[in-house]
Amino acid sequence: MKKTGFVYIMPLFMLACDSQIDVVSQEMSKIRQLKSTKTVERPIFHPVPRFKYSAHHLKSPFVPDSLQSKFHLSSRLMRNQQLRLRQPLEQFSLDDLSFKGGFRTQSGKYIGLVQTPDGRLERIQLGSYMGLYQGKVIQINAFQIQLLEMVLDGERGYVTKRRRLLRSVAGSELSNKPILDKPK
Length: 184
Fold this sequence. Notes:
Layout: H1 2-33, H2 65-83, E1 98-104, E2 110-115, E3 121-124, E4 129-130, E5 135-140, E6 144-153, E7 157-166, E8 179-180
Antiparallel strand pairs: 1-2, 2-3, 4-5, 5-6, 6-7, 7-8
Protein name: Type IV pilus assembly protein PilP
InterPro entries: PilP
Organism: Acinetobacter rudis CIP 110305
């Protein structure tokens, strides 16, 4: 019974498809009878001589005179920063790092211990770099690490900002967060 029903319904579908095909065929024959238009030829492009910019050493017209010297200074500092090898703690945000303490060497220098998010302890000393913004360690003591970061300012290029990472104390969640000081 199911097969016979299918056999009776199938021709109806075929008729519906044929009527659609006939409509499309009629439209295509109308389009073919229309007058064809001539295609436009491709334009010929002549090569333009290369322009060599020779005023790159002059003052930029986009930077005000008052900021020009600061902009050149910060750009030079950033170029020097990009040439040095990155240190392991520079792949982490300061928010993710935790200052665990440190020790004093026989020569009197203080070595800090910083814990990374994956639990590793890294040694740092004066002049080390940490954080995502080229933070250079300028002071280490038993309670904090102070560093200078190079942060991109929308107006003046790169500016240095002083940040500090406080020593983690058990039971205190605020102690291991960096505190933003006023920029110098």
